[in-house]
Specification:
single chain, 223 residues, 8-stranded mixed beta sheet
């Protein structure tokens, strides 16, 4: 009798591009064109307020980091783009749909053994408050749980990050699994408490997916 093989993660394809159901949001592997806006994003005070551990990097640093991280199967970095609705072609026109850089997302700490990873998101200040968290995470989760074969996704955020915690608890209704006191060191030599959340594949398929689709106003996606 042959023992059954354990589930395995699907490798990330080259040129990966993901779209939200309404094509408002696009997630894509970062390129050299994104190095400068990513460097600016990481140094923005509103970002560093809740992620004080992020080192400030130059455009050249980001380029080197992008190349190194692309070789690590435990990491999937994605640049976030939002459709520029003001430049959409008219009904009788043929034209290209433009997308604007709006932040970064992705996963790290991917475990092949446990089919688990940690997810993150940083939305550029100009796009905060524009209801982007739901389509970004929906698009990422759908890929992770339904294509890549992930079983468990973890989130960690500053205990003072009310917006992110509110989305996790009230919108996605993701389970709070714990709080780590003074887990992150901040730039001013202080310490930041961290809250940890997690979502399982069964929760995504049984509840979270439909909840996010309803919030986005789209019909259930079965493919």
């Amino acid at each position: 009798m042959t023992a059954s093989k354990s589930p395995a993660l699907i490798p990330t394809p080259e040129g990966l591009v993901l779209f939200s159901p309404d094509f408002r949001v696009k997630l894509a592997l970062p390129t050299a064109q994104d190095d400068e806006p990513i460097a600016a994003l990481r140094s923005d005070p509103s970002v560093r307020k809740h992620m004080p551990f992020l080192p400030v990097l130059t455009k050249e640093d980001i380029a080197l980091q992008r190349e190194q991280r692309a070789q690590d199967p435990a990491i999937l970095d994605l640049a976030v783009f939002v459709r520029d609705d003001e430049s959409l072609p008219g009904e009788d026109e043929v034209g290209e749909i433009n997308y604007q850089f709006a932040g970064v997302s992705g996963i790290f700490g991917m475990s092949e053994e446990h089919l688990a990873c940690e997810a993150g998101i940083i939305i550029a200040p100009a796009f905060q408050g524009k209801s982007l968290t739901t389509p970004i995470f929906y698009t990422l989760f759908k890929y992770l749980f339904e294509t890549k074969g992930v079983h468990r996704v973890i989130f960690e955020t500053s205990a003072a990050n009310g917006a992110m915690i509110g989305w996790l608890e009230k919108v996605a209704r993701v389970r709070l699994e714990g709080e780590r006191r003074q887990a992150w060191r901040s730039a001013d030599e202080g310490w930041v408490d961290v809250k940890s959340f997690a979502i399982l594949e069964v929760e995504w398929k049984g509840r979270v997916k439909a909840t996010l689709e309803k919030r986005m106003g789209v019909k259930p996606i079965t493919w």
